[in-house]
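REQUEST ID: PR-0412
SUBMITTED BY: lab tech R.K.
PRIORITY: routine
TASK: structure prediction, single protein chain
INPUT:
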Amino acid sequence: MAEKTISLIITRQNSPDSTPYEEKFEVRYRENMNIISALMEIQRNPVNANGEKTAPVTWESNCLEEVCGACSMVINGIPRQACSTLVDKLEQPIRLAPMSTFPVMRDLAIDRSRMFDSLKKVKAWIPIDGTHDLGPGPRMPEKKRQWAYELSKCMTCGVCLEACPNVNSKSEFIGPQSLSQVRLFNAHPTGAMNKGERLETLMEDGGIAGCGNSQNCVQVCPKGIPLTTSIAALNRETNIQSFKNFFGSDYAY
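STATUS: complete
OUTPUT:
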């Protein structure tokens, strides 16, 4: 009886400036196999479907349990995590490609600098100035903590940016991931000290006005984060901030 195999067609690219091409592979099937397992089989024996020796496929992964977000790629046309995508649930041949929103470094490995630069732009952190050793800070109300926790599940995988039609090489739009992080850090009692600064950043070019409300982001998010809810809330917050800027910080709302 012939050994069962799975077929993969992988979009490859030797360098950031080289032309992408497709290469087909056949790997031995195993029950409960995920995409990372298939790529590891190719790494162990880098021979394509024609029996030709080739370079091992380059990809990124780390935690292998859908926590780090490193293994994001386009699988059968859908951006998702390779570690949690099971071969048994995919049509063959399985097509793997790098996410097109980000520059390709090699094969399936991409440069996520755009996403991290956006996080820097909106100051997605809580600054400390040396007074953090004065004891516990203010407590977050439980109701707010519950929805903020959902936003904190973001693993910076970039899948929402890949799915968003407004995030592309011709646009400066920072994307849904960074927008949601603004809402998360503005909700924190200490992070709220920089709330106005973050909102004003969203009012600039590339900010919240770049969202076209396609809602693709919330559909593909592997963590089920309510991204569109955050964007709607930030629309209101930026409108309020614009009135504050116009009338002065003492204006009542």
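NOTES: The longest strand covers residues 5-12.
REVIEWED BY: pending
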